[in-house]
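pinging the channel bc i need a second pair of eyes. not urgent but kinda urgent?? the chain im working w is below, pasted from the shared doc
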Amino acid sequence: MNSIPDLGPVPQRVTVDAHLVRRLIAGQFPQWAGLPVRPVSQGGWDNFTFHLGDEMLARLPSASEYALAVDKEQRWLPALAPRLPLPIPVPLAHGKPGAEYPFSWSVHRWLDGEPASPDRISDPVRLAVDLAGFLAALQDVDPAGGPQPGKHNWFRGATLRTYEPVVQRALTALDGHVDVALAREIWKTALDARWDGRDVWFHGDVAPGNLLLGAGELAAVIDFGTCGVGDPSCDTAIAWTLLTADGRQAFRERLSVDDETWARGRGWALWKTLADCARTLGRAGEEAVNARRVLAEVFGEYRTGS
């Protein structure tokens, strides 16, 4: 892309509760009207998620920008699922806008597991290798006709320069609080790293909350709302946000990531953690601590190469 897209204002969220979901289910899928509906704990921000009985999930976008992903997921997740070595959400039904709710929505099969976190991972290197194997299989899927980067996925798979204004604002806010000179160097290295232009499939948001564990091992990958075809370097950001140093190396080797892609992936990790550090500056709490931890991982790996 030759120009920097406008990411637009913060999305205006609607309100969704279990009573509304029950009415939508009863009106559009009466065969499930008798099933209990209850919110999913830690259901995320982009979508409201509700248990529908014991084996299904109702997923309703919280804003018009997030609703752009629904038709894409309905079209592509059934095609991707058979090609991947781990379970992913496959839509069972396509909900339509109604008088009380303005967007398309989905019913998925429920996938068991708990969100990944360092303390829940039984073998960090094995998890890294398993995740790399999943992403390698995703990248092997034919990209023909796949969704190009755009507003539907916040321009994942496109140029990192999309996020240049966010990074510069964060660096201004963080001056005197972090090593801004080093951050600028890492960011410039990422921007200068060339992509060969070959489209491949990517997930777009390989984050701890979208990796489900079972007995400490990777069991499923969820939330493909930012998926598409383009530059896959965004999927390597997980190397700094979750993986250990040994896991990071194993992940890179299994996925066969070249130096240019690795540098861009580091940039994807950097823009997000700089924004998080700026937003939580002066605060205590888990979110602020995690942002500083990831920034330290990015800085340390860049300095030492490991």
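so Residues 259-279 form the longest helix (21 residues). and Residues 28 and 95 are 7 Å apart (CA to CA). — does that match what u expected or am i reading it wrong
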